[in-house]
What we know:
binds 2'deoxy-thymidine-5'-diphospho-alpha-D-glucose; alpha/beta; 7-stranded parallel β-sheet; binds nicotinamide-adenine-dinucleotide; 12 strands; Rossmann fold
Amino acid sequence: MKTVLVTGGLGFIGSNFIRMLFGLARGLRVINLDKQTYAGNPENLAGLEKDERYQAVTGDIGDEGLVSRLLDENMPDTVVNFAAESHVDRSIDGPEPFIETNVLGTLRLLEASRKFFAELTPQEKESFRFLHVSTDEVYGSLGPEDPAFCEKTPYAPNSPYSASKAGADHLVRAYFHTYGFPVLTTNCSNNYGPFQFPEKLIPLMILNACEGKNLPLYGDGGNVRDWLHVEDHCSGIVAVLEKGRLGETYCIGGNSEKTNLQIVDAICALLDEKRPDGAPHVDLKTFVKDRPGHDRRYAIDCSKIKEEIGWEPRYSFEEGIAQTVDWYLDNSTWCENVTSGNYQRERLGIS
Ligand code: NAD
Ligand code: DAU
């Protein structure tokens, strides 16, 4: 990789990925196309603004003209598509932005990239990669004894979010089969770690617990997710870019299935130790109305990426959650700017 067009790089995973790229290769250039929705936070990449290897562009992956111009001007050898509406609850409240960005946006990004690819020299074509970042949610919901999802599991999305990601995945697949466009797809489990927007389970629970607010568990708290530290997801994407077979999909997971109750209990125990004033934090647990259509269990069998590519997660859940709790405690300014909405002041032109 020499020049990488990253989309959605101001979000949680994209910003961690860009930091990781610069740590891996000094000579690399990154163009970050991000619409700066509520989930896009420039503070996630604070310090990079003045780095000449980095260019931030505010714009929509659905703007084919803009994407084409960025491709022609920068001649990337790699495109990594993180841009998406990513929160299931928001997709239940209003599905349309999910179709706009996740389906139509991905289609337009693919179309601009395919036209760009068609004009490359044979040598440039050889090294070009388009990696689409997707989710395990496209596979639906597992029962307690079902085998984990793998690349051959049939798609069965249950929420507007996962349906929109499934639609995007199918388009990416079709571009390989129809046009010979060099794609790779990753389907990853639940990420956690620094810079995650506090509408998602783990950061929401950490920040609520610190403020003595209720910890709202949907339903009986028994839903299971497979948790992966964001740095492990990013290293998996790098590994797939380097060694993945074109047209293939790779499942990425943390081998770490936990119920939501287990997650919240782990966070509370860490906070009791690190912030004893509000202890015991478990007293804040509250069971609330379930999410409609709530998938019961996700689990990932990541033997394909392990055997073909040699990738494995490095964090145990215990290490990862302790590091994540510490990060939120140590980065109170970031947290305050997000919860107060201050991180959006510049974009909204508020002085
Ligand atoms: P996020 O919501 O934190 O960030 C999404 C980013 O995309 C934001 O910066 C936002 O401004 C940008 N964006 C949204 N619409 C855009 C558009 N039309 N054009 C350009 N930019 C746009 O999401 P995340 O958690 O970092 O997830 C990144 C990707 O990884 C998503 O595709 C998501 O489906 C996938 N994924 C997430 C997880 C997870 O646990 N968070 C797990 C597996 C896969
Ligand atoms: O599996 C990968 C997916 O993980 C990604 O594709 C999504 O972008 C990402 O948001 C995540 O989806 P989930 O719906 O699993 O994540 P969320 O953090 O919203 O919820 C995790 C679990 O916690 C889920 O069972 C719902 C539950 N939950 C969530 C919230 C926000 C609660 O019980 N209470 C809450 O307040």
